Amino acid sequence: MAVSIDGDQEFDKVLSIKNKALRINLNKNIYGTFAEIGAGQETVRNFFRAGGASGTIAKTMSAYDKDFSDAVYGTEADRRYVTENRLHKMLDHETRLIEERILRRKHPEKLFFTYANTVATIDFAKKYKGHGWVGIKYQVKPDEGYNKIMIHIRFKENDAKHQQMTLGVLGVNLIYGAFYNHDSAKQILINLYNHLDKDQLEIDTINFSGPRFKTVDNRLMSLQLVKHNMTDAVMFSPSGNNVLPAAVLYKKNILALRGSFRPVTNVNLEIYKSSLELFLKERKVNERMTQVVFEITLSNLRSEGEIDEEDFLDRADLLCSLGQTVMISNFQEYYKLVEYLSNYSKERMGIAMGVNNLIDVFDERYYRHLSGGILEAFGKLFFKDLKVYLYPYKNQETGEIVNSENLKVHPRMKELYKFFKNNGRVVDIKNFDENNLSIFSREVLKMIADGTPGWEDKLPKQTVAMIKEQNLFKRDYKLSDNVGYKIS
């Protein structure tokens, strides 16, 4: 049975929050529950104020008390309440109640939905700004299965009342987009910020599921979050699924490796294995509590103009297939990466990089936008005894192997470099295969694209198999994608 909820994207752009809520309310078929925990009933309040809500709102509830919440939705193994699993339970429980209590034969055209959020706003000490999970489970046709949209947000405002109002606007945008932009996950995502500023909140995770989103790749949706500056970084687990950065990084020892990984070469794996071996020998580094992150910065994905999303997926797939966690970020400079990771963990951190990268780190041109210049950047970069694990470089003409002892930085940076080197902040990777020093990703990429034999020996066997099976990297290659980046 067809029910009219067709959207008009141009029209949507000018709708106020009140008019969005009113348009939902005036649709006689849309009917559901609002369950909001932790930041008031701000979303449903917009629907009440808009008028005509009696035909839309089946029930509104807020199980604020923890014992009561546990009685309704069950307890969590970790005793936490602001979690993705809690949101799933809320959405599933309330949807089940609607199905049980509202007879389909009496309401054959109803489109059931449950909107829910579980949120912690800013604390009294204003030390933690708060975060939350927000989602909707809904139908587009009465005889069709349910779709789900789940997002994780971080508040940026410093006032609890403002955060509540922001959440209310976001909730209306999500519900409206779910029904009126359901044919475009990307449009739903972009419209979440209607009447909101990115200084108010950050969306760092989003997942679509259900019959309307069968063809949606949630990793590409995550890429849109970074691309549109909705968040600074997103992460994928080895299974290839979106994961919440905080869940992966919280209180972990973190080792980060930056690269183009186009494709993953034997050099990348050697850097990973050798630097991890050194990192695990550091004091206070617990292997069980250690997380390795392979980071691709969006500035490199944009190196030749518009981002090639298919190419992005190729890289992520190859890394995930090797059992690695992948981060896509907006960080051009290394110190910004360290700042970001420090939001989630105060434990030991390390960064593995090549000689060319370290030389660029000591190039003061990259820090002219900072009032404190390179010293300010280094104060952030070498936070908490961070160490750099340095992979050597071989001069292909002279055969000289360059490491921390003989690399050359700008004369003005010599003493600064000596300071960090002599204080043990730069550690040479000595366990390496000299044959790998002649492998460069751009040359491998060209060989693959041109069909030149021999590239297989330069890559892990599993990566070779995937490239051949999926016919990857046959499109035009970018010479700017190299092991060494002109970024710091």
Question: What structural class do helix, strand and pairing data support?
Answer: alpha/beta
CATH domain class of the largest domain? Alpha Beta
* Portion in helices: 25-40%
Q: If strands are numbered along the chain, what order do they take across the biggest sheet?
A: 8-7-11-10-9-12-13-16
> By CATH's scheme, which homologous superfamily of the largest domain applies?
HUPs
Unreliable spans = 7-12, 477-488
Q: How far apart are the termini?
A: 57 Å
How many domain units?
2
The coarse overall form would be elongated
Do you know the CATH architecture of the largest domain?
3-Layer(aba) Sandwich
What is the CATH topology of the largest domain?
Answer: Rossmann fold
Computed CA radius of gyration, to the nearest angstrom: 25 Å
Total DSSP helices: 18
Strand content: 15-25%
What does this structure look like?
This protein is of the alpha/beta class. The chain folds into two domains: 9-216, Alpha-Beta Complex (Maf protein), CATH 3.90.950.20; 245-470, HUPs (Rossmann fold, 3-Layer(aba) Sandwich), CATH 3.40.50. The chain is built from 18 helices and 16 strands. The strands form three sheets. The protein has an eight-stranded mixed sheet with strand order 8-7-11-10-9-12-13-16, sandwiched between helices. Strand 7 (233-236) and strand 8 form a beta hairpin. Helix 3 (42-50) crosses helix 6 and helix 6 runs antiparallel to helix 7 (185-191). The longest helix is centred in the middle third of the chain and has 21 residues, at 160-180. It is elongated, with a radius of gyration of 25 Å. The termini are far apart. Residues 7-12 and 477-488 have low confidence and may be disordered.
